[in-house]
Amino acid sequence: MKGQNKLFIAIVIALILGVGIGGFVHIQYPESAESFSKNIKLLGTVFIRLVQMIIAPLVFTTLVVGIAKMSDIKMIGRVGTKAMLWFISASLTSLFIGLMLVNWLEPGHVTKLPIQDAASAEELLKSSKGFSLEDFVKHVIPKSIFEAFATNEVLQIVVFSIMFGIALANLGEQYAQPVIKLFDIIAHAILKMVGYIMWFAPLGVLGAIAAVVATNGFEIFKVYAIYLRDFFFALGILWLVLLLVGYLILGNRLFELMRRIKEPLLIAFSTTSSEAVFPKLVEELERFGCNSRVVSFILPLGYSFNLDGSMMYMTFASIFIAQIYGIEMTVGQQITMLLVLMLTSKGIAGVPRASLVIIVATCSMFGIPPEGIALILPIDHFCDMGRSMTNVLGNALATSAVSKWEGQLENHGGKM
User: Which segments of the protein form a coiled coil according to its record (predicted)?
Assistant: First the structure.
């Protein structure tokens, strides 16, 4: 626990320092803010790239070992069914909460936002125009596992790993055991690397926060105060729902889980990357007492199918843009939009700024000017902090819940 506390304190200090340094540069040296931002952001880039370096091999080895060790195909099907039921229920709940609150709070009606130049959204608009069922299938099914590894396409790696793990489980112990043992050793070695890489987290946090504050200053908080206030209020409601369900399933152990994942939550919030905490989350959930096979199976799936924060943001932002343009949508249209978002958002976790891409595609479908995405681009970084943190919480709860339902949640995990 001592080491964990030291790292947690270091991250908090880095967060405060980042805001202070960024604010100082923005106020005292505004002409240097852009170059300063570009340089200090490299600290965040180093941390993120170090984590990305180990994501593909970790997902592959842990998932293959988890499935192969299950050996019972019925168990794989049972665990997978429970996981998907959680993912679908949580996704629909998140979308519905976003829909209800954006209609109640109406941030687009009460906020006078400066109209942004649509050119800032041009790249995003281009990337969303090609979105189709064909692209979705291509994104899910790999044509080469090596290409999937090279581009960190988590869902493609998951698909290959599940098939490989099932094949290994049915190969017979004589042939399968040496391969499982090798992958198990590799997975543990990579998890050991996690400990080393996490000590770069404070530097990554400092760099990411200082860069955005130096460029945008504190004014950005004022300009978009109402939108941010309403969005984070909606996130708070989603957290209450998730934690209530978590308490009903885990009981008092929920508080132990929250203590375990406080560090991953803070890193996800600071770096706006739930991917950055994947290895650490694997480690903490196993220490909490979750079955390693369940963790290896559920967590990679969750990163593709269980993005609760992103889900809620998609309905919130889509209706917000409609409100800004004065477009009234019927209840039927909004429910249809909710279902469209539910389907189109699955499996695009590997796409950069995936939530925004889906919002643009959905707006086009429902006659809302997609250029409206330019309105929220300047504050997307801050919204991304909240949704990344919520994605991590949702996946930690899903993994713990399925472990409990399987009767494989140990009463005492590793040392705190």
Answer: none
Evaluate whether residue 223 is within a structural domain. Answer: yes
Q: In angstroms, rounded to a whole number, what is the distance separating the alpha carbons of residues 388 and 16?
A: 19
Best CA proximity match to 307, nearest among 86, 124, 117, 79: 86
Q: What is the residue whose two structure tokens read 């999937």?
A: 148
Burial tier of 340 (Cβ tally within 10 Å: 0-12, 13-18, 19+)? middle
Q: Provide the phi-psi class of 48: left if phi over 0, else alpha when psi is between -120 and 50, else beta.
A: alpha
Nearest to 86 by CA among 233, 249, 266, 234: 249
What's CA 181's distance to the chain center, in Å? 30
Residue at 303 is within a domain? yes
Domain containing residue 223: 1-406
> What average pLDDT does range 319-326 have in this prediction?
82
214 pLDDT more than 70 = yes
Q: How far is the C-alpha of 375 from the C-alpha of 231, rounded, in Å?
A: 15
CA dist 359 and 302 (Å) reads 21
220 pLDDT above the threshold of 80: no
- Distance, in Å, from the CA atom of 24 to the CA atom of 218, rounded to the nearest integer, reads 11
Question: What mean pLDDT do residues 165-191 have?
Answer: 85
| Structural domain total, the chain | 1
> How far is C-alpha 292 from the chain's CA centre?
21
Q: How many CA atoms are closer than 13 Å to the CA of 87, on its beta-carbon side? A: 23
**Torsion sign over Cα 136, 142, 147, 149:** positive
Phi, psi of 409 (to 5 degrees): -105, 110
CB-CB contact of 206 with 18 (8 Å): yes
**Residue 382: inside a domain, yes or no?**
yes
What phi, psi does 290 have (nearest 5°)?
Answer: -65, 140
CA dist 344 and 362 (Å) reads: 9
pLDDT of residue 313: 87
Rounded Cα distance between 416 and 411, Å, is 13
Residue 319 in any domain: the answer is yes
Summarised one tens digit per residue, pLDDT across range 63-78 is 788 777 766 667 778 8
Q: Please tell me the distance from the alpha carbon of residue 98 to that of residue 107, in angstroms, as a whole number.
A: 12
- Average pLDDT estimate for 129-157: 75
